[in-house]
Amino acid sequence: MNSKVTNRIALSLIVLCAGIMAAILLALLGYILVNGVTSISWRFLTSESSTFLAGGGIKDQLWNSFYVLFLTMLLTVPIGVCGGIYLAEYAKPGKLTSFIRSCVEVLASLPSIVVGMFGMLLFVNYFQFRYSVLSGALALTVFNLPVIVRVTEDGFRALSRHQKEGGLALGMTHWHTIKKILLPAAFPSILTGVILSAGRVFGESAALLFTAGLSTPNLDFANWNPASPNSPLNMFRSAETLSVHIWAVNTNGIIPDVQTVANGSAAVLVICVLLFNLLARGVGKWIHQKLSGKA
After folding, report:
1. What pTM, to 2 d.p., does this model score?
2. pLDDT per position as a tens digit, 192-224
3. What transmembrane ranges does the database entry give (predicted)?
4. Are the beta carbons of 186 and 152 closer than 8 angstroms?
5. Are residues 286 and 192 in the same domain?
6. Residues 125 and 6 occupy one common structural domain
7. 118 and 19 belong to one structural domain
C-alpha cells in the first residue's frame, strides 16, 4: 500500500478517535449543564440543605468540599513534592528505589473506594477521628499523594541536564541547585499538576463515603472557633461534601425536589472542576510566558 495512503488512513483514525472523545465529553457536560444550570441560584448556593422539605440548598456541602480540599492539598503538596524531588534527584538505582516506585504505582492504581475503606479502618476506627473532615482529608491524602509525587518527578526530569550541571559548576551545593535553579524551572509544570489534582480531589466521593460521613451539621458561619461543634473550621465534625450529597440525594433522598437538587448540585460540581482545569492551563501558560520573558 502507498505510504501516503497509509498516512492518510492513520491520520483519519486518529482524528476520528479524538472527535469521538470530544463528542462524548461535550455530550456528558452538555447534559449535566443543560439540566442543572437552571436550578442554580444565589439562594441555592447560600441556603442549607433540607432532609424533608423542598427548596434546600448546598451551602454546607459546598463549604465542606473546599475545606476538605484545602486540608488535603495542605498535607499532600509538601510531602508529594519532597518525594518527587527525592526520586528525581537523590534516589540511586537499586532495590530501595524500585520498591518506592512500586509503592507509588500501586497507590496510584488503587480504586478510591479501597482507599476509603482503608481510611475508615485506620483514621475513623483505629485513631478514632470518627467520620470527620480530618478523616476525609487524610484518606484523600493517601489517594492524591502518588499523583503529586509523579508530577514533581516528571517536572524535574523534563528539565535540561545543563541547568543542573551549570549550578554545580558554579560551586553550588546539590540542594542549593535544586532550590535556586531546578525547582523554579519545574514550578510551572508542578503547579499545573497540583491544580489538576485538586480538581480530581474536589470531585471525589467514594473515598469520602467511608471517612467524611453522609451528614453535616448546620454550620454557623458567624462562629469560626475550631472547637465549636457547628464551626465551619471544626475538623472533627462530619462533613458531607458536594459529590457525596449528589449520591445521597439520588439514592436516599425523600425531598419533593430530588431531581432539581441533584441536577443543580451536579452542575455546580462540574463547573468547579472545569474551573480547576481552566485555571491550571491559564496559570501554567502565564508562568511559562513570564519565565520565557525573563530568559
Report:
1. 0.89
2. 889 888 888 898 888 999 999 888 888 988 889
3. 9-34, 66-87, 99-123, 129-151, 181-202, 261-280
4. yes
5. yes
6. no
7. no
